[in-house]
Structure formats: C-alpha cells, structure tokens
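Schema walk-through. Below, the input block comes first and the output block second. Nothing else is stored per chain. Lengths vary across the set, and this one has 171 residues.
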Amino acid sequence: MNTKEYQREAIKFATFGEEMENEYLALGLSGEVGEVLNKLKKVIRDNGGQLTEDAARHIALEIGDVLWYVATIAQAQKIELSFDTHEKENVSLQGAIKFGMELQYQSFRVSDDLVGDRPCYPPNRLFTICSWLEIMSNYAGYTLEEVADMNIQKLTDRKNRGKIGGSGDDR
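--- output ---
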C-alpha cells in the first residue's frame, strides 16, 4: 500500500469529533510512541535483548498505530504524506532505541505544534517521523509499507467487530 492509499484509508477509522481534534491527535501520537518504546523495553526485560517473532510483530503493530496518527494529523492539516520504503536494513536494538528516543522527541514537537499557543504544522517533522518509523519497522523485520498494510488490516478487523473504540491491544 503506497502512502496516498494509506492516508486515504487511515482516515476512515477516525472516531473523534472536530471540537478537540488537535488535542486528541497530539495525545494519541505521544501515547502511541510511548507504546513502541515500551515494547522495546520489554525486549530487554523479557528476552535479554533478543527480538522474538512475537515481540517483532507487537512492535510493528504499535508502529502502525503511530503511523495512523501521523497520517491523520497530515490529513487534518491538508498535508499529503509521503514515505518511500526502501530495502529492509539490519537495525540493532541499540539503533532502535536511539531512533525510538528521537521519534519520541519529534512526536512531542509535533504535539506541541498542534496544541501550542502558536500552532504550526511543519510537514518536514511528519516526514522525519515517517523516516524514523521506517527504521523502527526495519528493526522489527518489516518495511513501513508492510506495517501500513498490517495497520489497515487490524483497524478493518476491529471496525467489523465493532471494536474501534475502547482500550487494549487485543480488542
């Protein structure tokens, strides 16, 4: 699924009102990046730093959730999101942690842009986040395009079961 297709599909799953759209998106983006980092932490805690297939899948699913917020923010700001997927690269746990921290910093900047006193929405921040999401996806053994496909499949399944709202990874 290319970027334009993903952005067009992702917005179909939005269930928030427009009244506090920026606040909702800012909190969601920051929260989902935290969930990616939490999955990395669990690779260290539970697997001695070794990435298992199950942990990789869970990391990829969380990256998909971050991507959903990035695409939705871009759509709300009339920005055409673009990410070019490349060949998968080998990324170490240390590399994933480094880029995960950078991802968190950049997501906080985007969130502040959304709810700050002088809102601005520089597209380059969203594109930078997409680049780091690709690196994180590579760590998990996926391309960002594969993660985007997984995310739409997950959201479609939840929507079909009436579980778009609510909490928990396994709803």
